[in-house]
Target: catechol O-methyltransferase
Amino acid sequence: GTAALIWNEIIREKVTNFIMNQSKEQRILNFVLQNAVRGDPCSVVDAIDKYCSQKEWAMNVGNEKGLILDKTVEEANPSVALELGTYCGYSAVRISRLLKAGARLLTVEFNPEFAAIAKQMIEFAGVQDKVKLLEGPSEEIIPQLKKKYEVDTLDFVFLDHWKDRYTPDTILLQECNLLRKGSVLLADNIIFPGAPDFLNYVRKSPHFQCTNYPSHLEYMQVEDAMEKAVFLG
Model:
């Protein structure tokens, strides 16, 4: 798995970026703009999956773990959801297509280049009325959610950003009183590349009830999993 990622993420990507004079993320967006249907989020998700499984690997949640994400979102039926780590907007589009009328998703992205791509992806999918993209570090944005973004509590949180931020940001969500009894956290990539500190924290905490969903790394046959942690109050 590590060797495959080094090849895809570093060697192959850098060479292609140099030859084409554009980023992989821009290529993903271009493929979607040319092959998906404007205003159809399912078509956008399918186009990204097609590109990343057939042409260039990318760190979206992907089609296999995407089904776990879908099921968790449908069960949580959130009015207010938070995503940490937007990347190209794949999971923001995937989550928002399942939201009930009047519900909203706040998605946080630290990288301005990724945020610019994601903004175009979200608008092309036609879900911009449901999704608010917040650009900056999660540790700065989370404490602003209540006052600046009028969030009372979060019904659903998807953790898919820097793995070493999973635990401190979960603690921050608790300290800022953003979790209520029944709030659902879903964390991606807990085996590969791995988030052992997060697993240790939520599984040992009396405040969370955890469920593990074995799966595979997006677009690869590398073992991975997602962890659902329901806040008990």
Observations:
- The beta strands are 80-84, 104-109, 131-135, 154-159, 179-187, 208-216, 223-231.
